[in-house]
Amino acid sequence: MTSAERAYLFRHALLRDAAYQLQLPGDRARLHGLAFAVVEELCGGRPPDRISSTSKTLEPFVAHPSDSLAEELAEHARVAESADGASKSKWLLARKIYLHRAAFHAQKLLHRDSSIHLWHSLAELVEGANRGKALYFAGSVEFDAGRNDEAEKSLRQALALCHGADTRSLECRSLRLLANLLRETGRPDKTEHLYSRALTICREAGLRSEEGMVLASMALQFTETRRFVEAEEALEHARIIQRELGNRWDEGIVMSNFATLYSSMGRTAEEERALAEAARIHSETGNLFHVGRVLTQLGGVYWKSGRFQLAEVTLESALDAWQKSGFRRKEGPARLYLSFVYGKTDRVALREGQLRQALSISQEFSDPDLEARVLTNMGDLYLGTGREAAAEELLKLALSFHKRTGDRRFACYSLCNLARCYLALGRIREATDAWRQAAVLIGDPLLQTDRPIITRELRDSCAKAGVPPFEGLSDT
């Protein structure tokens, strides 16, 4: 575009705005009303009124030709409403209908900031259950965007509006999502009673599909607290429900959670089979979020079994899925695993680059568990590249996180690396103390594969420092 063309467009926009501002408020409102009518007609007429719906469930969103212009139509209705007292209720209803559609449309396009704003704008115009639904969807998008404090506030406000049989579906979903949020942000002690309440409501109201999803989420809570029998029972029940309903989308999520359970139990062959089945289902249903999740975990399986090239390709595919689905906050674990692959293939600079990106993501989205694991691995990297002082600082910080989150496996890694760090710095007493704390944890079944590597590294560090192996080290 030439300078002359830009100048013309600027003058045209300036004159158009001046002409608009010179209109009297009543005339301006009528112009907006006229624009509303023309645009709505061009889009094939008004979409169904979902705002006034008395449905007791959260109905799925069905696209309409007006969706791409819904936000514009809502704004036309707002201005027309301000000066048309006789038709105020008509314009208000139109505004609600199009705000509702605009919020869903922005959410579908992953325009999360816009979607959140639109859901909250709608919530200000509606009452009761409809306000609760708008706040639930706002909280859902806020959670996806990593805006956890805002999501928690929105979900709690939605729950406060749940009263009686007409809001059972909304209450169940809000409880489950709030429990997921608390679990993922390191507050597992506050989640179980929320899942239990949600499960009771689902069963009383006959919400079978939602019951299956609550059971699948509860299974993750049971897995994280090492209640494996309860986790497997919950997942078996969830799978039966989703298969009976023919709900492939949610069946894929259940299979993903089975893989997480098998991973925690050390049942690697079953984990890999569950991941392969989950990946097929998620690809079939177009669930990019869970494609990313499954490929991340599968990349980890390949890394652990020494299939480094396959791991690298799979993890890069996982990152591609996360980026296409707009879930930056979920890239962290994939980048952490990719750093492991680079570590095993002696690409130190690439390893450090992935760790730094993973750390940035964990801090941006307040994920203490991921941050702690990244810090542990950065400490290991610094230790191996002669940066002992920096390693000590990172490992101490990681250890404080692991104690808070109850991650015994990575607490053991951090303590053993801290012992190696102290040995390199000649601080033998502190090294011995770190080993004594690690020795309490190293018998954990989750460390069965890594235990020989950890202890060999510690023995080598003792020999290098000129001290005998720590008491009990030769027995592990």
Topology readout:
Elements (H helix, E strand, L loop, with lengths): L2 H20 L2 H18 L27 H14 L4 H21 L3 H12 L4 H17 L3 H13 L7 H17 L7 H14 L2 H17 L3 H18 L2 H18 L2 H18 L2 H17 L3 H18 L5 H14 L3 H17 L3 H17 L3 H18 L2 H17 L3 H14 L9 H15 L11
Supply database-style keywords.
single chain, about 475 residues, mainly alpha, Serine Threonine Protein Phosphatase 5, Tetratricopeptide repeat, about 0% strand
Write up what this structure looks like.
The protein has helices at 3-22, 25-42, 70-83, 88-108, 112-123, 128-144, 148-160, 168-184, 192-205, 208-224, 228-245, 248-265, 268-285, 288-304, 308-325, 331-344, 348-364, 368-384, 388-405, 408-424, 428-441, 451-465. 76% of the residues lie in helices and 0% in strands. The radius of gyration is 27 Å and the shape is elongated. With 476 residues, it is mostly helical.
The residue fraction in helices comes out at over 70%
User: What is the radius of gyration computed over CA atoms, rounded to a whole number of angstroms?
Assistant: 27 Å
Largest sheet: none
Q: What separation lies between the terminal Cα atoms?
A: 72 Å
Which whole number gives the mean pLDDT?
Answer: 85
**H and E string:** HHHHHHHHHHHHHHHHHHHHHH
Spatial shape: elongated
Residue share in β-strands: under 5%
What's the β-strand tally? 0
In terms of quaternary structure, the protein is single chain
Structural class: mainly alpha
* Tally of alpha and pi helices: 22
List low-confidence stretches: none
